[in-house]
Amino acid sequence: MKDDLLALTDSLILQKDVDDLVCLRRIILELYSSGFEVEKLSLIELNEYIDEACAALEENKDPKEIVNLKIRQLQNS
Fold this sequence. Notes:
5 helices; mainly alpha; single chain
C-alpha cells in the first residue's frame, strides 16, 4: 500500500491536480485519525509532503522538481 499511496500522490503532483491532492490529504488524515497504519510509511509525513507539493504547485514550480523534494525522497527509505 505504501508504494500505491506514493505513486498516487506523485501522479497527482505531475498532473498538477491540487484539488485531488487536497482530497487525498483529507482521506489520509481520516485514516490516520482512525488508527490506520501503513507499513514503513508515516501518514503524517505523507500529508506534509502533500502540503509542500500543493504550496509549490500554487507557486508554479515544476512538478518534476516537487517529486524530487527531500521530504519525498525520505518516504522511499
